[in-house]
Amino acid sequence: MCRWLAYTGNPIQLETVLFRAQHSLIDQSLHARLGATTTNGDGFGVGWYGHPTDIPFRYRCVQPAWSDRNLREAARAVRAGRFVAHIRAATDTPVQETNCHPFRHGRWLFVHNGSIRNFPAVRRDLILAVAPELFMGMEGSTDSELMFFLALTFGLEQEPVRALERMVGFVEETGRRHGVEHPITMTVCAMDGERVIAVRYSSETDSRSLFHSTSFRHLHELYPEDPRIKAVGDDAYLVLSEPLVDLPGVWEEVPEATAIVARGEDIQQRIFRPQAG
User: Fold this and answer.
1) Taking Cα atoms as reference points, which of 2, 29, 33, 35 lies closest to residue 17?
2) Signal sequence span per UniProt (predicted)?
């Protein structure tokens, strides 16, 4: 389906994780190891923050990530301490720029891997639940963007995890009303420039892969001469679909039905419980 990663820490060149890592996101666009599809060539996008309180920058394109020369130049030029990147494998919706992640609203960025099952059948009911004042901000036709705007409707900017729980509960309730046994599968990430919120969940408890980095302070002790680890700082944090390097002790799998909220050195995990009604 798709692959994505989100980073917070010392400012680094985007190319560090997009191109230079052993199993970089660009490598994953051609050779995904843990995804439902090996190739993710239906567009890509990167969103980053110049300052935590600013509206984030965004670059999206429908070309395969591995063949876009402008992406390579931008990734070399841009240094950021907070960013998210996504490579897309389209399912039921067209390959077009407005369907490329990350989606943006104000300071918020959003990416998704997975699907709302039988989306054409439930799409109308879901769209009608989006708040009228948000509706004009929807540009594309994906289930992913609709999930984002439903989460905004349910209070993402105030209580992000609870809003995502309400969004998933509503999607599941709607899907089952239409006879869909397992309405949703997802790993998602929402960022506002200060927090990274990531969730791994599926209706059938068999979610797409998701990993996070362990303590970089500990990793500096394990690998004191590794320049990749030195550069990011002690409070760096990565959450991503697939590990970037094969160093022991660097990655942990995110448990099923788990939400993560990362803000600087404060990393919290909690059980993710969808809320219907």
Assistant:
1) 29
2) none
Give the start-to-end residue ranges of the domains of the chain. Answer: 3-112+187-271
What is the distance between the alpha carbons of residues 126 and 121, in angstroms, rounded to a whole number? 10
Provide the residue type at 8 as one letter.
T
Fold of 3-112+187-271: Glutamine Phosphoribosylpyrophosphate, subunit 1, domain 1 (3.60.20)
Proportion of the chain in helix, strand, coil states, percent, rounded to 5: 30, 30, 40
Q: Can you tell me the distance from the alpha carbon of 82 to that of 11, in angstroms, rounded to the nearest whole number? A: 7
* Lowest-pLDDT range of 70-74, 172-176, 227-231: 227-231
Main-chain dihedrals φ then ψ at residue 263, nearest 5 degrees: -140, 100
What dihedral angle (degrees, nearest 10) is formed by the CA atoms of 194, 197, 198, 204? -170
List strand residue ranges (DSSP E) for 117-226, in order: 184-191, 196-202, 211-213
Q: How far apart are CA 88 and CA 10, in angstroms?
A: 27
Q: 213 pairs with which residues across the strands?
A: 251
Element (H, E) at 162: helix 160-177
pTM of the model: 0.94
SS3 101: coil
Instruction: Tell which residue, 156, 140, 144, has the closest CA to residue 113.
Output: 144
DSSP 8-state secondary structure symbol assigned to residue 258? E
| Listed residue (270, 237, 224, 254) closest to 8, CA to CA | 237
216 near 7, Cβ under 8 Å? no
**Cα distance between residue 205 and residue 128, in whole Å:** 28
Other residues' Cβ atoms within 10 Å of the Cβ of residue 271:
9
Quick: pLDDT tens for 97-153: 999 999 999 999 999 999 999 999 999 999 999 999 999 999 999 999 999 999 999
